[in-house]
Specification:
6hp_glycosidase-like_sf; three-stranded mixed beta sheet; Glycosyltransferase; three-stranded antiparallel beta sheet; MGH1-like_GH; globular; 2 domains; Mannosylglycerate hydrolase MGH1-like glycoside hydrolase domain-containing protein; 6-hairpin_glycosidase_sf
Length: 245
């Protein structure tokens, strides 16, 4: 824990309210606005206050395009919208940034980036996402692999782990369910969520004053369910009932 805290503080640039991209050989922070802080955010390693500064930048027009997040800010002197590592939009990186947004309660930005990832599967071969796009135009660059599995897979990962908020642990027999649905969705059905040989079905219904979740298991042993629904800003919980009680 002390090592992690020291690492956080070493890279944190207080004046800029951001984490340095790297530490130079002179032991000074290299200050560049990039998407790469997504990695510790993905593992929930940053405190909420610092994460908020980073996620604000992710969601801004400085970093976000309609097709994903740039790897490097256009304000950087190194930025090139066609450079593989210094300005293009990677669906792979956008996916991790999207999951980071859901991790820290930024469901609106997370949903926006999830939709960007989904739309990317309609260019070139249907169902596949190219490896990377220009940082300025919705067009894959020449170096892009057209059928890139790690750029296509975030569509499913961000849907299940982010929007639906589903995680399963077969060894502990536990399920974590953190749904963060858009405000306009009043019903969601999830079928065949599998953990080992066990299968679960979820039916969520929402109204102005109720949030109802029905879980139907097809399991060989009991599971513990951790349920953390996103109720939206201003919502107050007046009562909670389990199995009608």
């Amino acid at each position: 824990e002390k090592g992690l805290e020291a690492l956080r503080d070493k890279f944190w640039v207080k004046e800029e309210k951001k984490y340095a991209h790297a530490i130079t050989v002179e032991d000074k922070p290299l200050i560049e606005t990039t998407v790469w802080p997504f990695m510790p955010l993905f593992f929930r390693q940053f405190p909420q206050e610092r994460a908020n500064y980073i996620l604000d930048i992710f969601a801004s027009s400085e970093m976000s395009t309609d097709w994903g997040i740039r790897s490097l800010s256009p304000k950087s002197s190194y930025y090139d919208p066609l450079n593989y590592n210094y300005g293009t939009v990677w669906p792979f990186l956008t996916g991790y940034a999207c999951l980071s947004e859901y991790n820290y309660g930024r469901s609106l930005a997370g949903f926006s980036h999830l939709m960007s990832l989904a739309h990317n599967t309609f260019i070139d071969a249907l169902g596949f996402s190219p490896e990377l796009f220009s940082g300025e135009f919705f067009k894959p660059i020449e170096a892009s692999v057209p059928h890139q599995i790690f750029s296509s897979s975030p569509v499913v990962t961000c849907l299940v782990r982010g929007l639906l908020g589903l995680k399963g642990n077969a060894l502990k027999r536990e399920i974590e369910f953190r749904p963060s649905f858009p405000g306009s969705w009043d019903r969601v059905k999830i079928r065949n969520f599998r953990i080992g040989k066990d299968i679960f079905h979820f039916d969520v219904q929402r109204s102005e004053d109720k949030f109802i979740c029905q879980i139907v298991p097809e399991a060989y042993a009991p599971y513990r369910i951790h349920f953390y629904p996103s109720l939206g800003y201003g919502a107050r919980v007046k009562a909670v009932k389990v199995n009608g009680e």
